[in-house]
């Protein structure tokens, strides 16, 4: 195939994903979908999976490179631009207690999830992606980790499905428990609890708004601080994956200590994500421009999610089995229990 034909075929695949992404944005404007606080990213992966299990075999295979391009390159651009949603001023706004709670939640959820996944005999990548998604920021964290560890599309789709299910459950459960008095927390403490334990940013916004402005403000800021913790997690994951790859080559002289260090690859999109946060902290760009970038970023991430869904068939879900959802449930119980205890007893100490 000539280079021109290759580019044309790739463009067809990209345009297909763009079309699905536009549809995802349109569906998100439907009142029922709005009430669930589903982001276009979530709708996009559903549309992609519907395509994968219906029309996929009727379209030219030459379109596949364009779909893969969206799931890899476009994804990394989207993760970098996600930094425009954050500033370092957000960290100081909520204080040290929120940062400590976020750090404990992220570390224990990821490490504990990987350990439990090993006990359950799960695929390591699915266990890791599910744990990262539960511990940090849902689908966006799964996408970032997927790019760092080079997971298979169906593994990413399974992990996203678990965090969507339990994130949605939390969005409805938290306001009900708060309004009924079961969770006897101050508005600030409830905001910290919500932001540090709920899965998706959209779910944190939905749950916070249902509990009032005082809760919502703290919840969103704490949630975004948790998103920032994606950077060190991705750097650690990239380092570990590279070390394993080096070790897997054997004990030849070319894998000496010094040489192995030079082969460690760093997920630079994570570093650029942090750089963008720093740039955004100076407030150089006008709010209108930042809002436009955030909308563009949401569209790019929706494209990536749709492309990942397009690579995921029902058979691959069956292959993953029930265990990922069991792990996600265990992590959900942990988040609710540990988050509540820390919000009730740790936060007042600061």
TrEMBL record:
The alphabetized UniProt keywords are: Cell membrane, Membrane, Transmembrane, Transmembrane helix
**Entries under PANTHER family matching the protein:** INNER MEMBRANE PROTEIN YEIH-RELATED (PTHR30106), UPF0324 INNER MEMBRANE PROTEIN YEIH (PTHR30106:SF2)
Major location (coarse): membrane
Residue ranges spanning the membrane: these are 12-28, 35-52, 96-120, 126-145, 157-177, 220-241, 266-286, 292-314, 326-347
Q: Which Pfam families match?
A: Cons_hypoth698
PROSITE patterns linked: PROKAR_LIPOPROTEIN (PS51257)
Q: Which organism is it from?
A: Xylanibacter rodentium
Q: What is this protein called?
A: YeiH family putative sulfate export transporter
UniProt subcellular location: Cell membrane
Regarding protein family, the annotation reads:
Belongs to the UPF0324 family.
Q: Matching NCBIfam families, A to Z?
A: YeiH family putative sulfate export transporter (TIGR00698)
Ranges in a coiled coil: none
Its domain of life reads Bacteria
Topology of the protein relative to the lipid bilayer:
Multi-pass membrane protein
